[in-house]
Amino acid sequence: MVATPAYAADVGGVSATANPIANSSGSVTNQAIQVLQGPYITNQYGNGIACQGPTMNVTPYVTGTGSFKRPFEHTYQDPVYDVHDANDDGQIDNPGNILYYVPTRTGQQDGYNLSIGLSATWSKPLDKKLQELCKSAVTTQINLQNQIYANKRLDFELARLKNCGELMKAGIVFHPQSQYAAVCADVKLINPPGTLPNHTHSIKANPPVTNDASSLKTISIGNPE
To answer: What is the rounded CA–CA span in Å between residue 50 and residue 45?
Structure first.
């Protein structure tokens, strides 16, 4: 006996075929704040010395969103139907008949959102020893620059003193009302040409040979005061 195989297609007159249906809907809004970190603050001190220090980045931000619907309606007309059954037969006498309309609020409204904030980051080098070595090199470099400046200043003052003195000996000076007279104003010429310094000398003279004992005499010669 050969029979055709039968497959279950329904159960009790109800289809047993799986036919799942899933419906979903949603809305997602993503907002992000980007924080940009800059490089470390670098200080240059000359001679190839550069030190990086801690850096703080502060980023204020303001974000806002808005939502609305068009056309905007505060209310709508909700119909009231005639459900009168005069003979109580369970059937509406005038199906579909609208008696009047009731104004109903839609609840529709615009939505706005405003966010204000501040984002900050703090960056600091981790190797403290390198930072201390760099600071030490900076101190040495600054001291060296100060010494070089002092040497240059000394060379300038000595050159000014020499040139002003030589010009004074030659009888060349700035006019007192000249704006450059102050260049040699503090230079003093001690011994002008053709003069001798004001000085005295003390000498001792031997007394003549006599029977009387004479005391030593002191003779002073020099420029009169």
So the answer is: 6
Give the other-Cβ count within 10 Å of 184's Cβ. Answer: 19
Residue 214 falls inside a structural domain: no
Q: For residue 13, tell me if it sits in a domain.
A: no
**C-alpha to C-alpha distance for 178 and 173, rounded to whole angstroms:** 10
What residues make up the domain containing 72? Answer: 68-109
Q: 35-53 in b/e burial notation, b at 16+ Cβ within 10 A?
A: eeeeeeeeeebeeeeebbe
Dist CA 50 CA 43 (whole Å): 5
Q: Which residues contact 9 (CB under 8 A, 6 or more apart)?
A: 15, 16, 17
**pLDDT (0 to 100) of residue 20:** 59
Summarised one tens digit per residue, pLDDT across range 79-98 is: 998 888 888 888 888 888 88
In whole angstroms, give the CA distance from residue 164 to residue 180.
Answer: 12
Contacts of 180 by beta carbon, 8 Å cutoff, 6+ apart: 174
pLDDT tens across 185-198, in order?
Answer: 999 888 776 666 66
The beta-strand segments (E) located in 82-155 are 98-105, 111-123
Is residue 85 situated within a structural domain?
Answer: yes
Alpha-carbon span 5 to 119, nearest angstrom: 73
Residue 222 covered by a domain = no
Number of domains comprising the chain: 1
Inter-CA distances, 108 with 72, 76, 105, 112, Å: 7, 11, 8, 13
- Integer Cα distance of 3 and 62 in angstroms: 78
